[in-house]
Sequence to fold (91 residues):
Amino acid sequence: MEEIMETARLDASGRLVVPAKTRQAAGLVEGQVQLIASRGCVLVRQQGPNKAAIDQWQKHLLASTLKVTKVNPKEEGKWMSDDYARRKLGL
Fold:
């Protein structure tokens, strides 16, 4: 990986203008979301979430099916009796 050090200038609106050579080396493209963290006087940049990957993950979750099984509490071991539960619920 090539290390590039260039000068960047903060404009009047507070935007940091990243030189073209640095953008290309980092794979930055227009409109891409970036996460920026400050560690003292050092800024750390990381590519933000990818909308296509998020959409694919959402489709996968929506297509997933869950198998619902009925559990018999007597087989699994109750931690309270039916009478106790009714009293607590006011039934």
In short: The longest strand covers residues 34-39. The mean pLDDT is 82. The radius of gyration is 28 Å. Residues 4 and 21 are 8 Å apart (CA to CA).
